[in-house]
Specification:
With 237 residues, the chain is of the alpha/beta class. 37% of the residues lie in helices and 25% in strands. A 6-stranded mixed beta sheet has the order 6-7-8-3-9-10, sandwiched between helices. A 4-stranded antiparallel beta sheet has the order 2-1-4-5, with helices on one face. Strand 9 and strand 10 form a beta hairpin. The longest helix is centred in the C-terminal third of the chain and has 18 residues.
Length: 237
């Protein structure tokens, strides 16, 4: 049986309107990510890395092109069906945690399961188990504002993994963290990839995180190009 990519982007273009004419951010991106693979997307600020990640995760639609997840074109889905698909099958981790301050840690992590209509006792069990594995068993009922930056990001990771997604997309997951917390989050991402065979695509400026990925792809002038870590170091110097 032929191996099916976790993500396959074909001819991906994204054009934004601009007072001086259309602004083409992505220029025919071709990308294949295999199941269980860890891929870093790097590049200068403002080149469209977040835009690309949002397209790959179905948070936005391209001007042209196709995006397949495990052989299925997610762009064939209606907006409503795509929203349900994202909630059930994808995990997102952002630079800012987007946790809700009016809820405690456990309630925040349970939210995707509740929105999916799954039984509350099962969702609570999953959330408690994940938070325990991520070292937050003593913080279940703490409000978000009472958590440290590293704890908030770990809680955001637990929320992203609650429904056991096959694919996790992370946008600068260490961007707002101090060095120690950034290393901690990096190790957790790698452990989750290894334990659950989760496909991981990370947009990052963190060289240490990029170095731990299977592949590094650099976005520049609307195109993706695979680079070695040594080449990346020379480009960023």
């Amino acid at each position: 049986m032929a191996r099916v990519p976790a993500i396959k982007a074909e001819g991906l273009r994204k054009v934004f309107p601009h007072p001086e004419g259309e602004l083409e951010i992505l220029k025919g991106i071709e990308l294949t990510v295999w199941p269980g693979e860890k891929v870093a997307i790097v590049g200068p600020s403002g080149v469209g890395k977040t835009t690309l990640l949002q397209l790959l995760g179905g948070l936005d639609r391209p001007t042209e092109g196709r995006i397949l997840h495990f052989g299925e074109n997610i762009l064939d889905l209606s907006d409503e069906a795509l929203s349900a698909y994202r909630n059930r099958h994808l995990g997102f981790v952002f630079q800012f945690h987007y946790l809700l301050p009016e809820f405690d840690t456990l309630e925040n992590v349970m939210l995707p399961g509740l929105l999916a209509g799954l039984p509350r006792p099962e969702i609570r069990r999953r959330a408690e188990d994940l938070l325990s594995r991520l070292g937050l068993s003593e913080r279940l009922h703490h409000r978000i504002n009472d958590l440290s930056g590293g704890e908030r990001q770990r809680a955001a990771m637990a929320r992203a993994l609650l429904l056991e997604p096959r694919l996790v997309l992370a946008d600068e997951p260490t961007g707002n963290l101090d060095a120690e917390s950034a290393r901690e989050v990096t190790e957790i991402l790698l452990q989750l990839n290894q334990k659950y065979d989760t496909t991981l695509v990370v947009v990052t400026h963190n060289m240490e995180l990029a170095a731990r990925m299977d592949r590094i792809l650099r976005l520049e002038a609307g195109k993706l190009k695979e680079v070695s870590f040594e080449k990346l170091v020379s480009l960023e110097a």
